[in-house]
């Protein structure tokens, strides 16, 4: 019995440390439309922009400059993301025609909140120890 418990604890601890921190949960990220959606797949999260940045969907969502995207990505406050269009160019802002982006909707408590564009372009923010790179984004 003790050997079984020790082995189980070993696998539990080892398994937790084997999961990369950047893997994320992604259970709050879906693909499709408000009436027809499914959980985002690992393949879709790994899709890279075809511009010079080669940013993955996971990178731009998990490290978005827009707090509402970050919160929805992480499920803060019962929020979720719905990816409605993968990497593309076009739209109304100057960034839309210059950088590839994905279009996502932010939902809270099953209610639509806003539409955002998450770009392949990363920027540096903060100073000193608080300096970090985040992905540009805009929301309507």
Explain the overall architecture.
This protein is of the alpha+beta class. The chain is built from five helices and six strands, in the order H-E-E-H-H-H-E-H-E-E-E. It has one domain (24-139). Strand 4 and strand 5 form a beta hairpin. The longest helix is centred in the N-terminal third of the chain and has 17 residues, at 2-18. The radius of gyration is 18 Å and the shape is globular. The termini are far apart. It comes from Thalassospira lohafexi. Keywords: Signal.
Please bin the fraction of helical residues: 25-40%
In terms of quaternary structure, the protein is single chain
Order of helices and strands: HEEHHHEHEEE
Number of domains: 1
Q: So what's the overall shape? A: globular
Could you give the distance between the termini?
Answer: 58 Å
Total helix count? 5
Mean pLDDT: 84
Structural class by secondary-structure content: alpha+beta
Beta-strand percentage range = 25-35%
Q: For the report, how would you describe the main beta sheet?
A: 6 strands, mixed
Low-confidence stretches: 1-23
Strand order of the main beta sheet, please? 2-1-3-4-5-6
Spatial extent as radius of gyration: 18 Å
Number of strands: 6
Considering the chains and any ligands shown, give keywords for the structure:
140 residues, six-stranded mixed sheet, 29% helix, disordered N terminus
Summarize the structure.
By secondary structure, the chain is of the alpha+beta class. The chain has helices spanning 2-18, 42-45, 57-62, 67-74, 94-98, and strands spanning 29-32, 37-39, 79-88, 101-108, 111-125, 132-139.
């Amino acid at each position: 019995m003790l050997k079984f418990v020790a082995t189980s604890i070993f696998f539990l601890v080892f398994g937790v440390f084997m999961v990369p921190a950047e893997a994320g949960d992604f259970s709050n990220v879906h693909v499709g439309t408000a009436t027809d959606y499914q959980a985002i797949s690992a393949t879709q999260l790994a899709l890279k922009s075809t511009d010079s940045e080669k940013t993955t969907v996971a990178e731009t969502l998990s490290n978005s400059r827009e707090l509402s995207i970050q919160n929805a990505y992480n499920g803060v406050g019962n929020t979720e993301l719905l990816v409605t269009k993968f990497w593309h160019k076009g739209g109304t802002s100057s960034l839309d025609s210059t950088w590839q982006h994905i279009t996502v909707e932010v939902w809270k408590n099953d209610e639509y909140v806003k539409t955002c564009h998450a770009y392949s372009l990363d920027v540096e923010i903060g100073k000193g120890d608080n300096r970090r790179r985040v992905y540009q984004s805009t929301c309507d």
